[in-house]
Amino acid sequence: MFAPGASVRVKDDWPETRGPVHIRTPHYLRGMPGTVVRQLGAYPNPEDLAFARPAATRALYHVRFDQPAVWQEGRAGDELLVEIYEHWLVAQ
Amino acid sequence: MDKDVPRAHHDLGGVSKFLCEPVDVEPHALTDFDKEVDALRAVLGMKRVMTVDELRRGIEAIPEAEYHRLSYYRRWIRSIADNLLVKGVITEAELRAALDRV
C-alpha cells in the first residue's frame, strides 16, 4: 500500500509484446516517476476481468506526474493526474 | 515527440499524429443503431454474459486500420459479436444468417 505523498515509479513493462492483454496503464507513463495523491479504492483487476478470469482485488491510486517530463511540452508546474493500479507502481 | 515504444495501437494518448487534427467536440445525436448496441451491451452485462472489461478488450483487439475506420458503436458491436462467438453464445453460421437477413 502507498500513502499519500509516496514517491513511486510506473513499471517500465510492456505486456503488449507478450500476447493478448488489456492494460489500463497508458504507454506514455511507463517508467515515469510520480507522486501518490490518494487511494481511490480497490477493485477486481481489469486485466483479468477482460478475459473473464478470476480477478484479485487491487488498490487504485491517483498518481500525479510532472507534465513537461511526460510530454516534453507545457509549463513548469503543469501536472497530469492519472488512475494507476497498485501492481503497476514501485516505491521510488 | 512520440516515444519509440511498443504501445498498443489503441493506446493513443499524446501520439503526435492525433495532435495535428482538430478534435470534433460537437455533440452527436445517437442513431437508432447506436441505441440498440448500447441496450444490447447493457442486457449482456445484466445477464452476466460479458463485462465492460471484455468489451474493451474486444475493441482493442480490432485490427488497427479497421479500428480507426469504425465508428464508436460499430467498434462495440464488433467486440460484442467476437465475444459472443468465442463464448459459444452464438455460432458463426447464426451470425451469417442474421446478417444475410439485414
Number of strands of chain A: 5
* Total count of helical runs of at least 4 residues of chain A: 2
Order of helices and strands of chain A: EEHEHEE
> What is the makeup of the main sheet of chain B?
none
Spatial gap, N to C terminus of chain B: 46 Å
Please tell me how large the radius of gyration of chain B is: 16 Å
Percentage of residues in DSSP E strands of chain B: under 5%
Report on the biggest sheet of chain A. 5 strands, antiparallel
CATH superfamily of chain B: Nitrile hydratase, beta subunit
Taken in chain order, the helices and strands of chain B follow as HHHHHH
The CATH first-level class of chain A comes to Mainly Beta
Uncertain parts of chain B: none
Mean pLDDT of chain A, as a whole number? 96
Biggest interface and which pair forms it? Answer: A-B, 19 and 17 residues
Measured between the Cα atoms of the first and last residue of chain A, the distance is 13 Å
Looking at the structure, the CATH topology of chain A is SH3 type barrels
Apparent shape of chain A: globular
Protein topology:
The complex is a heterodimer of chains A (92) and B (102).
Chain A lengths: L6 E4 L22 E12 L1 H4 L7 E10 H5 L7 E7 L3 E3 L1
Antiparallel strand pairs in A: 1-2, 1-5, 2-3, 3-4
Chain B lengths: L15 H4 L12 H15 L5 H9 L3 H6 L2 H16 L4 H10 L1
Helix pairs in contact in B: 2-5, 3-5
Compact overview of the structure:
By secondary structure, chain A is mostly beta strands. Chain A has helices at residues 46-49, 67-71; strands at residues 7-10, 33-44, 57-66, 79-85, 89-91.
Description:
The complex is a heterodimer of chains A (92) and B (102). By secondary structure, chain A is mainly beta. In chain A, 10% of the residues lie in helices and 39% in strands. Chain A is built from two helices and five strands. In chain A, strands 4-3-2-1-5 form a five-stranded antiparallel β-sheet. By secondary structure, chain B is mainly alpha-helical. Chain B has one domain (25-101): Nitrile hydratase, beta subunit (Cyclin A, domain 1), CATH 1.10.472. Chain B contains six helices and no strands. Chain B is globular. Chain B starts with 15 loop residues before the first helix and ends with a helix. Classes of the chains: A mainly beta (92), B mainly alpha (102). Chains A and B meet through loops of A and helix 3 of B.
